[in-house]
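Summary of Year 1 activities. Much of the first year was spent building the evaluation harness for sequence design. The harness presents a backbone, in tokenized form, and records the residue chosen at every position. We chose the following record to illustrate the format because it has been used consistently in internal testing since the harness was completed.
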């Protein structure tokens, strides 16, 4: 075999490895039902914080807190996160967790919060809305 054939074969093997690892690593948003069906496997779950139930946080144990959230289908679960509680966590509109099901609760390994916008559409002057629209239209051209 020539050296060029060996190099091309190695490049092909590396390319296949990259494609396979990309598909194996890609994840989609799931719900609590799917997480419960596959305990121990991590899923991305998007939901909303249940503000009617308490957020359990003990300052003596700053690396753990728990809260309740609803998934996209409205199912509620307790979520335990073994890290510091994010600042203004109570004000969040949406929560994305990466976690796995464990005996009726979700153990989160990471959190992503969508905080409420401090700007509302009614607070924006009409002239600014028109300028923003014109800027978007210019970028489309």
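For this record, the design step produced the sequence shown next.
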């Amino acid at each position: 075999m020539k050296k060029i054939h060996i190099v091309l074969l190695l490049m092909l093997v590396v390319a296949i490895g990259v494609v396979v690892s990309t598909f194996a690593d890609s994840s989609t948003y799931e719900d609590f039902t799917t997480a419960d069906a596959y305990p121990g496997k991590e899923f991305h779950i998007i939901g909303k914080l249940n503000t009617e139930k308490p957020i359990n946080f003990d300052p003596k144990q700053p690396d753990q807190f728990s809260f309740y959230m609803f998934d996209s289908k409205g199912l509620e679960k307790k979520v335990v996160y073994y890290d510091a509680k994010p600042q203004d966590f109570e004000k969040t509109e949406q929560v994305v967790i990466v976690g796995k099901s464990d005996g009726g609760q979700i153990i989160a390994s990471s959190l992503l919060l969508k905080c409420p916008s401090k700007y509302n559409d009614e607070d924006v002057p009409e002239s600014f809305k028109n300028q923003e629209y014109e800027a978007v239209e210019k970028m489309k051209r």
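The chain has a mean pLDDT of 81. Quantitative recovery figures across the full test set are reported in Table 2.
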